[in-house]
Input
Amino acid sequence: MADLIVKLAADGIQKKILHAGKQPLPAFIEGTKVIFHYKTTLPSEDATVIDDSRKRTKPMELIIGKKFKLPVWETILATMCEGETAEFLCDTKHTVLYPMVSKSLRNIAAGKDPLEGLRHCCGMAQMHDHHLLGHPDLDDLHNSPRPLIFTIEVLQIQVPGSYRQEAWAMTDEEKLAAVPEIHEEGNRLFKEGDIKGAAEKYHDAIACLKNLQLKEKPGHENWIKLDLMITPLLLNFCQCKLIQGEYYVVLDHCSSILYKYEDNVKAYFKRGKAHAAVWNIKEANVDFAKVLELDPSLGPAVKKELREMEKRVREKEIEDKKRFKGLFQ
Output
């Protein structure tokens, strides 16, 4: 361990062990999965927190040898034991790409495409762009790279073959082959009532295809083929989000589908329900009218949604009258 710490220091990384883990130090052969929590802070007096995985749905997972976009994490994790908590102060040369990695991780935590907001170009070209990432703290760090402190808590270390490989860690061929299986698993979870689990599976499948699509020229035959595979998965994901009450996520995704496929009835129907849920009554009526225009057989379903929307509007009007009456009295 002493030799490892010396090597880290020579490479511009200072390690401070906060809690010792289970000895001995694992071999960390290629394919080893490390599950961990991380907190990223600025090395300032107020120790400004940039990211904290404990505030998200699940811990981070990294597979050794899969060329993670932030190589320093693989370097520092390979010095840690299971159960260990340590603090690493890393020089700027190791943290230049962190804003883009953080953007992707934030997208994942929010149920979005990990690559959303990142342009179709190489990492170095992205680093020369300005205000690319859409988060003020990341834009600031992006434009003015600086050292960072990573506080890492290793929860579990799994040797190759002892775990099911996550979609993001697969090769292109493995991703394409895995999508139908992931899709089916999402459907199974949905039928069983595990809406959260189903949404995660649909999201994983979408991420696989989006990653592949990024390597194709927009509008090219292969790009379109992948997009046609993404669309039903995205609609399933939106159905989960409707049930979970995340209506603005549904509005965003359905609008993105309709921007490309103007005759997608399911996208209009789901967007109409989302509009109704957030009191965009005019927009909901427009979407439901479009559903009837494209597929009159859905009349009963649309009428049911319109009745429920009208009922909610009447109840709200009554509630508002009572509230305003009380205020004037």
